[in-house]
Automatic annotation (TrEMBL):
Signal peptide: none annotated. It comes from Haloferax chudinovii. SUPFAM superfamilies: PLP-dependent transferases. This is Pyridoxal phosphate-dependent aminotransferase. Residues 1-34 are annotated as: Disordered. Its cofactor is pyridoxal 5'-phosphate.
Length: 337
């Protein structure tokens, strides 16, 4: 990429708030975290006083078990955005065309442009049918999608991945929110780079721990290009512990599966036109987004203004939290209609 063009690539707007008195529905993170996590973190602080090995063997084993691939296919990263940069860096060259859904996470296009590539946005719902893999160097998609919250049907996604593999076009699959569902990961499929955020689903997003997973030549390229010592010792210990908490994960998925239909039904009753959802993210249309933002904040909540996503001009995104918090947010949304 021409170094001068980096100045034309802006940072991406995300959710979150510096006001921790507000209940945050804007980031998509789990409001709960596994019991015992604080003790693991405190114990790990002592390891930060000495140099650590760069192999991350326990983390790789736990991550591989989490997504169903081989440990040697796991490449650690300091969060899913770093994993995305690594994946785009080994698959996109200056002048390359990269297909991605619209709307989608703004980081996809940013990373493509930083490599000198050209993002080509295709409507999310028709991407699998409309994209000819031979016309693109890479395809990036979310599973489930952000901000829509829906996941492509498994068989259709697998068929598309097969088409891309035959065209020698890698598919980067962002599985940041997959842990909130019982959908199978694409990790371990040839031709795929699966991206995972460990810390989002386990309620510690600022810990910044994640990984990419790929087989064969793609995996080799990721391993050669990755940053050394990408994860701190405390991050490795906590992330490894989290990945092994099966009971916590099942409880989270049970809660999301119970609460999501209830939230969607109430949003629909209130006239908010919710989009179908398969995970913890819920997107809905609002007649007056600014009023929704003001009223929810006044009532102690922060929600995601989704108008900065492509093709969304009157939408808000929230995530499924605890039942009482969901109820209180829905009450606030009722006042904003």
């Amino acid at each position: 990429m021409d170094p001068g063009s980096v100045s034309d690539v802006d940072h991406v707007t995300h959710g979150g708030t510096a006001d921790h008195s507000l209940v945050d529905f804007s980031t998509g993170s789990n409001p709960e975290h596994p019991p015992g996590l604080a003790g693991v973190y405190e114990s790990a602080l002592s390891t930060a006083r000495r140099d650590s090995l760069d192999d991350y063997s326990r983390f790789r084993v736990a991550a591989a078990a989490f997504v169903g691939c081989n440990p040697d296919e796991v490449v650690p990263a300091a969060g899913v955005v770093q994993a995305l940069r690594l994946a785009v860096g080994v698959t996109v060259s200056p002048g390359d065309s990269v297909a991605l859904p619209a709307p989608c996470c703004g980081e996809y296009a940013r990373e493509i442009r930083l490599q000198g590539g050209e993002p080509v946005h295709v409507p999310h719902d028709s991407l699998l049918e409309r994209v000819d893999p031979a016309e693109h160097a890479t395809v990036i998609l979310g599973y489930p999608a952000n901000p829509l919250g829906t996941a492509y049907p498994r068989d259709e996604l697998r068929a598309f991945i097969d088409d891309c593999r035959r065209a020698d076009t890698p598919v980067i699959v962002d599985e940041t929110y997959l842990g909130f569902t019982r959908l199978p990961s694409t990790a371990g499929l040839d031709g795929v780079i699966a991206l995972h955020s460990v810390t989002n689903v386990f309620g510690v997003p600022s810990l910044r721990a994640g990984f990419a997973a790929a087989t064969g030549d793609l995996g080799d390229r990721l391993s050669r290009a990755r940053c050394s010592w990408a994860l701190s010792s405390p991050a490795v210990e906590v992330a490894t512990f989290c990945l092994e908490q099966d009971d916590f994960l099942e409880a989270t998925r049970d809660r999301v599966e119970r609460e999501r239909p209830r939230i969607l039904a109430e949003l629909d009753r209130l006239g908010y036109d919710p989009h179908p959802a398969d995970g913890a993210l819920v997107l809905f249309r609002a007649a007056d987004v600014d009023r929704v933002l003001r009223e929810t904040r006044r009532r102690g909540f922060v929600v995601r203004d989704a108008r900065d996503y492509q093709r969304l001009d009157s939408h808000v995104r929230i995530n499924v939290r605890r039942p009482d918090e969901n109820d209180s947010l829905l009450d606030a949304l009722a006042e904003a209609t």
